[in-house]
Amino acid sequence: MVKLAHLFSRLQKKKILVAGDFVLDSYIFGKSKRISPEAPVPVVLVDSTESRSGGAGNVVLNLISLGADVTAFGLVGLDKAGESLKNNLKKEGAHLALFDHPTFPTPEKVRVIAGHQQVVRVDYEKSFVMDLNFEEMVCQEIPKIVPHYDLVAISDYAKGFLTLKILRTLIDCCRGHSIPVICDPKSSDLSKYSHSTILKPNLGEAYAASGLSSTAPLDEVARTIFKKVECDILYITKSEAGLSIFYPDGTCEDHPVSARQVVDGTGAGDTALAMLAVCVANKVSVSDSGSLANIAASISVEKIGCARITLSQVAKRCIELHGTAKIFTPDQLPLVDQALCGQNFVMLELPSSFEISSGLLKAIRSISNDGKKDLVISLNSTKFDEERVHALASLKEVSYINVGPSQLSFSSAVPESSYSFDFNVLVKK
Questions:
Q1: Cα torsion for 234, 319, 5, 392, to the nearest 10°?
Q2: Residue 306: what pLDDT?
């Protein structure tokens, strides 16, 4: 738990601009119990429908869930899908710097989900080439917008907005103002993203850009990309296999995913980009940023479709991966504080000389109720019996145990109720 705990106190709300291709993700949810008599396909009885922001919009949603102040910078059409996309983003709290184009058809992906299985996807999309006047107008706006942000995340889905000129204007403007820029590419020609702070292709994109065989070692792929592209750091995401970080000097770090169960890799790259952006904007080291981005992606692949990940979920997974039997010390408080943020939990203070009595066990059961609330136990001393503390940690009702000073204060998480227990008496504070 110690390894990453200190990072969470550094993750402040930052202003991030997401530039890229925005897609409307529509979902049809239902059940399928029979095959159509017309063709060998399932018949789906619709229960509900839903629309979400996809493409670069999924990066925006994840950034908002991670606590960032986000602006969407891209292109939509003057159509129903474009209007729905803008409404969804505004409803989620995003700021909009979206350009309306009269002939651009807003991309829409319609997924039919039967139970927990995607049956089919229908795409509404047409090739689009931006006219030069419109492109110039976008480029003129970039210097007015970019300097107001702590970081720019470029999410390229190759839908027509990120022309070479717009990309170069964006990246050069960021470099000119010493603003980090992270590029998630969608092209075999990665030179378009030269001078980015971090270039984040996925595994397939990296091999395609290098021109090497799929059997070539990944470090050779990275060396080849560095010869073609000027960037500070190369992050290669590998879906359920994690990510690798490469540096121009040839050094590398591997971050394997620790997912409980890989359900769906959709959107994992967007989640990694969002977590990476939050960390880099807060000046977290490249290595630690990669660790947290990888943890966020590992949570994403456990869910169906494009998932939104919160800092609370990332903190909880950090505790699971690096924790020590639920026990934490004051220097690990930011991690637990974030894990409990927005959650219902109760606090129980115990004296350092506590005994594991029937009265204490009964008190723990009564205040944890039906197990839906986390129970945090605070010991009012640094002196304690280690065996008793570990015995407490073994109880399923106990979520966390603080073995620090008497006054345990959380900055973002507030207990629903607090109790003290001494001399077999439970007192609500």
A1: -170
A2: 64
Q: Is the predicted pLDDT of residue 81 greater than 80, yes or no?
A: yes
**What are 156-175's pLDDT values in tens digits?**
999 999 999 999 999 999 99
Q: What is the pTM of this model?
A: 0.82
Q: Nearest-CA neighbor of 424 among 363, 381, 380, 370?
A: 363
Total residue length of the chain: 429
Active-site residue, from 21, 270, 337, 374: 270
pLDDT tens digit sequence for 339-379: 888 778 888 888 877 888 888 888 888 887 756 678 888 88
Token code pair at residue 279: 């960390």
Percentage, residues of the chain above pLDDT 70 = 90
Pinpoint the alpha helices (H) of 229-374.
268-281, 286-300, 311-322, 333-340, 358-368
Alpha carbon 176 to its chain's center: 28
Which sign, positive or negative, has the C-alpha torsion 90, 96, 101, 105?
Answer: negative
Beta-carbon contacts of residue 4 (< 8 Å; ≥ 6 apart):
288, 291, 292, 318, 322, 335
Reading the block at residue 49, the tokens are 């429908």
Domains observed in the chain: 2-311 (3.40.1190.20), 327-428 (3.40.50)
Active site residue 270: yes
Task: Describe the strand order of the beta sheet including 117-124 as a list of residue ranges.
Answer: 42-55, 22-35, 108-114, 117-124
Q: How far apart are CA 107 and CA 307, in angstroms?
A: 20
What pLDDT band is residue 261 in, cutting at 50, 70 and 90?
low
How far is the CA of 322 from the CAs of 4, 158, 192, 240, 412, in angstroms? 8, 39, 39, 20, 22
